[in-house]
Structures are given as C-alpha cells and as structure tokens.
Amino acid sequence: MPLPHFLILILAVILAAGLTIWAASAIGIPLFALGFLALLAAAIAHLTTRDHRS
C-alpha cells in the first residue's frame, strides 16, 4: 500500500472515531458506556472468529 493511501486511511479512522465520540456525547451517552460497548463488540468479534486450528 503506498504511503499516501495509508495516511489517508489513518486520517479517516481518526476522523470517524472523533465523530463517533462527538455524536455520542452530544446525545448524552457517557464515555464509559461508549468504551464498554466498544470493548464488548471487540470481544464478540474476537470470539466469533474461527481460526480452524485444532
């Protein structure tokens, strides 16, 4: 992946995270609850993946 594409991808991820945090705080969701939901989603995504190793 060329460097400009990588940097644009990183910028997009940072902007999406900032927008998510701003929108959640604007509607009154506590930061702790947002973090907990993100942690729960990551745990579910981790546990539902299969690596086919026995």
UniProtKB/TrEMBL annotation:
Superkingdom assignment: Bacteria
Transmembrane segments annotated in the record for this chain: 6-24, 31-49
Record key words, sorted: Membrane, Transmembrane, Transmembrane helix
Name recorded for this polypeptide: Uncharacterized protein
Native source species: Paracoccus versutus (Thiobacillus versutus)
